[in-house]
Amino acid sequence: MGYGKKIYDMATDRxxxxxxxxxxxxxxxxxxxxxxxxxxxxLEQQIATSGIRAARAVLNGGNVAENVRKLKVENLALQAxxxxxxxxxxxxxxxxEPYYSCPKCGDTGYCEENGKTxxxxxxxxxxxxxxxxxxxxxxxxxxxxxxxxxxxxxxxRVDSSVGISPYNQIQKIxxxxxxxxxxxxxxxxxLLMKGSTGLGKTHLSLAIANEVIKKGFGVIYATAxxxxxxxxxQFRSKGAEEYQITDMLIDCDLLIVDDLGTxxxxxxxxxxxxxTFNSRMLQDKPIIINTNLTMHELEKSYSQRFVSRVCxxxxxxxxLGTDIRIRKK
Length: 329
Ligand SMILES: Nc1ncnc2c1ncn2[C@@H]1O[C@H](COP(=O)(O)OP(=O)(O)O)[C@@H](O)[C@H]1O
Ligand SMILES: [Mg+2]
Ligand SMILES: [Zn+2]
Description:
Layout: H1 5-36, H2 38-48, H3 50-60, H4 64-88, E1 110-113, E2 116-119, H5 121-136, H6 166-182, E3 190-194, H7 201-214, E4 219-223, H8 224-237, H9 245-251, E5 254-258, H10 267-282, E6 287-291, H11 295-301, H12 304-313, E7 314-318, H13 324-328
Parallel strand pairs: 3-6, 3-7, 4-5, 5-6
Antiparallel strand pairs: 1-2
Helix pairs in contact: 1-2, 1-5, 2-4, 3-4, 6-7, 9-10, 11-12
Zinc ion is lined by residues 102, 104-105, 120, 122.
């Protein structure tokens, strides 16, 4: 899939920064080690030139096999001495080399696979992270956290129609969401947050988003009306856009669709939405859906099959009570 130049530059730049930092740190460590244990410098130089000595032994003739064997033994001894100095002084055996974030590609973003150069997993992940950041630029992420969520706002009287108080219900939902965020992985369950306006659905889903982003996952938060706009843009640009929104929505680790049911639906929009949800479900990738609609209203708005598929997969969280914004005052 294509991400466009802007996202690509952003991602490769960050990987390059990692590489630079790892190498700078290694230079600093090396200088420190050489200064404290000058023998390490000698050893490194001798190890580095052992190849030349082996070549010379071959060229000089005589008992080549025996001479090369001796050099090998010598080389191993040099390496053992160097490792010994490093370890006994509290360093890692690899302390003279850079500690790359991704040892597989050495923070270059590319690695060799079956004789071919391919994009490394770390660059793929960074592309997703950068693309998500771009998409979330205008999302109100920072204000809604678990810390700023207060279960005390909910009514402690039992709601006779459901047999539980809004307070007890939100306690359950609150701890479920905290656990969910804490244990999040790419195959976590999907969630369906239902309930009328002002009960904290958006707040808790953003709190989850914040935690999951901190863990380094790619998260996209979008309201359904915003999705309509994005799909419209994609439709009008006929794929010439920087990146295809649908690909991003499918590829990210967690997709949060807020206010489902409030958007204006077009044929293209519904097709893209179904495609997105379906593709994610096929890959067991989680979606969090928030809606003010009842199941019946959802089925009227979208196809019944779609609703039962999406909702059948998800953990349902029913928010109870009356608008928190009024109770907060
Ligand atoms: N339990 C809560 N503690 C603190 N603030 C809350 C709580 N529930 C909702 N809010 C705040 O009230 C407003 C409305 O909540 P929101 O999450 O948007 O509700 P919903 O998405 O269910 O309509 C937001 O500003 C939100 O931060
Ligand atoms: Mg909301
Ligand atoms: Zn890598």
